[in-house]
Design goal:
alpha/beta, 6-stranded mixed β-sheet, globular
Length: 197
Amino acid sequence: MRRMCCAMAAMILLASTPSRADEEERDHGEWRERLRTLLPKMGHRNWIVVADSAYPSQTAQGIETIVTGEDHLKVLRQVMAELAKQRHVRPVVYLDKELAFVPENHARGIESFRQRLHDVLDEREVHTLPHEEIIARLDKTGATFHVLVLKTNLTLPYTSVFFELDCGYWGAEGEKALREAMKASDGEKLPKQERGP
């Protein structure tokens, strides 16, 4: 009787404990809602990454990684659509510099992917940096700011797309004018305060 009770308890425990597959399935279904929830909170200096499946799990406190289990370009389109709805931020797009040099004979399908990626990015201005430099930036950013990494099922190298969020209603020209005005005011003498009675 005792053995039967122990066996039943073990079966109940196993059935109620989520498996790794259950956790991954949950992640697959929740990434869209997580993106929608986070975007209004995100702002200048936050990042969103649509990553290939071998993208590393970074340990900086602010880096959150979700395994989407979905097609890379599908996730990318969804992220871009959600970003387009936001008035408070605008994305600055980065790609790994290495992507342009990956040869087809070492990564079958890379030529087709590059063309499809170009079509999805739709003439947006794209910056390129060496992969390690981008990873270092994200590590540094993740120490203070939130970074959301959405891993896809893509198995081609150097295909991650990085969005650095910038302020959507304040640009470089306005910032430059502001800094120049502040610098000019530093040289002005402030009026002396009158002494009280």
